[in-house]
Amino acid sequence: MRGVTGRLMLLDTASLYFRAYFGVPESVRAPDGTPVNAVRGLLDFIDRLVKDHRPDHLVACMDADWRPHWRVELIPSYKAHRVAEEHTAGPDEEEVPDTLSPQVPVIEAVLDAVGIARVGVAPYEADDVIGTFTSRAEGPVDIVTGDRDLYQLVDDARGVRVLYPVKGVGTLQTTDEAVLREKYGVDGSGYADLALLRGDPSDGLPGVPGIGEKTAARLLAEFGDLAGIMAAVDDPKAKLTPSQRRRLDEARPYLAVAPKVVRVAADVPLPDVETALPRAPRDPAALEELAARWGLGGSLQRLLATLTA
Predict the structure, then answer these.
(1) What does the pLDDT look like over 216-230, one tens digit per residue?
(2) C-beta separation of 116 from 300 below 8 A
(3) DSSP code of 11?
(4) Could you give the CA distance from residue 55 to residue 109 in angstroms, rounded to a whole number?
(5) Under 8 Å between Cβ of 67 and 94
(6) Which long-range contacts (CB under 8 A, 24 or more apart) does 300-304 make?
(7) Can you name the residues that pair with 155 across neighbouring β-strands?
(8) How far, rounded to the nearest angstrom, does the alpha carbon of residue 248 sit from its chain's CA centroid?
(9) What's the pLDDT tens digit per position in 155-171?
(10) How many CB atoms lie within 10 A of CB 161?
(11) Phi first, then psi: what are they for 162, rounded to 5°?
(12) What is residue 200's three-state secondary structure?
């Protein structure tokens, strides 16, 4: 990433192809009858994103490990409800719709043939890859994700924003610090503390019982960050209700480990990849074969036309 000063767009790829899968009818199929709704939907997403936001660099960030063991060791409930099958060696198997799983290798092959950088690093999630690319970028960054966890990376001073799909990818919420303050009462740097205090059932994070989003936001406004809140718990003069003080004190074991689980990593060992937006397919022959086999039709042609424009 050294020397890259243009606009960088980072895709939370799994988040986007899940949305494509549920947003495009399963009747969209390959010539052999295999559903390709997630594949074509994702290509349409990328086409629209490139047309509307004109990034100079584009990276499809992947989950090499969607539930890293180092996070589970700290909080065993982390994403536990989404495990389809546990594995002692390697990542646990995530519960994924039967007709989506076979489309993921097709998505990966198409991205590779088009020439869009695709990066996943074990044992990290796509969020961590995104966090590391963001920390190293020297220019503005657009993060495209349906996962609010990445709001923690929003930074107006560095030009880092989240493009959050509200409906499909045609309607995106451009999330900057003003949006975060209006909706949550925190800026980007405070969002991780807000999330770990209130908890997140979708990720299996318990949070602090009795501390909801509004209370968490008030505490952060009063005491600055998690460390300031815990210092207030130890200060009998601090303005905490007896109930808040007790609940936060009882949650110390959770609050000691939650930051490492909730905050995205910024030190993933990224491979050396070409991130520049491709102007022509990297492997035209492979792409032609994939297009014919999977019936990618107009979705692929529109994206290629946009890339070469």
Answers:
(1) 999 999 999 999 999
(2) no
(3) E
(4) 22
(5) yes
(6) 300/43, 300/110, 302/43, 302/44, 302/47, 303/43, 303/44, 303/46, 303/47, 303/50, 303/114, 304/114
(7) 160
(8) 29
(9) 999 999 999 998 766 68
(10) 22
(11) -110, 130
(12) strand
